[in-house]
Design brief:
- The structure is a single chain.
- Helices cover 29% and strands 20% of the residues.
- By secondary structure, the chain is an alpha/beta fold.
- The strands form two sheets. An eight-stranded mixed sheet has the order 1-5-2-6-10-7-9-8, sandwiched between helices. The chain has a two-stranded antiparallel sheet with strand order 3-4.
- Strand 3 and strand 4 form a beta hairpin.
- The longest helix is centred in the last third of the chain and has 17 residues.
- The chain is globular and about 50 Å long.
- It binds zinc ion (ZN).
Length: 244
């Protein structure tokens, strides 16, 4: 297993590939794809700023870096937003990004998709697993990987106040169902492409290694190294057990 310090350093290096609020050069797509040999696809559609019905939504930092890291260590496939987009693939029905997922899935016989997102810390949980109430995959194939890495299931105990907030993992939280109402990537893959999929929302604490102050967010931020290592190891374990 990679040493925690190396893992965090690699995430910072990978994060430098992302042009959060810049357009792709003419003739290039705003997202990148990585082809692997293990039949799982990790997606990070909100890794850069994107536009939903004319409103600019901010990037979900480090979701792209984590997806690229997982593709490297698990030899799986990845698709990540690397520049600002004029669409929101997790909202719009017609989407260049969804079309690219369809062609990757069909070309490489992919059997499982993990759609990574970033949520704020304010929900008092580190990870929200969205399975469309079991419609996109069985939650019991996902959650145990997080529990094994040190997270605590809110299914059994509710959100625990007695543990660090990041350790709480919730399945199908009403706010993060993975697509009961919206045209998410997870829903598209499950219902249109007929393969299993899951949406995983990671709080800032479990994904952002370091983030400089910007105009939009005037404070430097560092997540919790132990929490970031735990979330990445959970995802590695999930990928290795899936897709075959
Ligand atoms: Zn998102």
């Amino acid at each position: 297993m990679t040493q925690p310090y190396d893992l965090l350093k690699q995430l910072v290096a990978l994060d430098a590939h992302f042009k959060y609020q810049a357009r792709a050069p003419a003739g290039e797509t705003w997202f990148d794809t990585v082809v692997g040999s293990h039949p799982v696809l990790v997606s990070a559609p909100h890794a850069c700023a994107h536009s939903r019905n004319g409103e600019l939504k901010m990037q979900e930092e480090y979701t792209g870096a984590i997806a690229l890291y997982l593709a490297q260590v698990c030899d799986c496939h990845a698709i990540v937003a690397r520049h600002q987009a004029d669409e929101d693939p997790n909202w719009h029905v017609e989407s260049e990004y969804k079309n690219a997922i369809q062609s990757l899935v069909e070309r490489h016989n992919i059997g499982f998709l993990i759609d990574l997102h970033g949520m704020m810390n304010r929900y008092h949980m580190g990870v929200a697993i969205g399975t469309i109430k079991g419609g996109s995959c069985d939650p019991s194939m996902v959650e145990p990987h997080f529990i094994d890495a040190g997270f605590v299931s809110a299914e059994v105990h509710g959100l625990q106040q007695s543990v660090e907030a990041w350790r709480n993992v919730v399945v199908d939280h009403p706010r993060f169902t993975g697509g009961v109402v919206n045209h998410t990537v997870t829903r598209f893959v499950a219902q249109q492409l007929n393969i299993q999929s899951v949406q995983i929302e990671l709080a800032s604490e479990v994904r952002v290694v370091e983030s400089a102050a910007t105009q939009d967010w005037p404070c430097e931020y560092r997540g919790n190294p132990e929490a970031i290592v735990a979330s990445v190891h959970s995802l590695q374990s999930l990928i290795r057990s899936s897709g075959c």
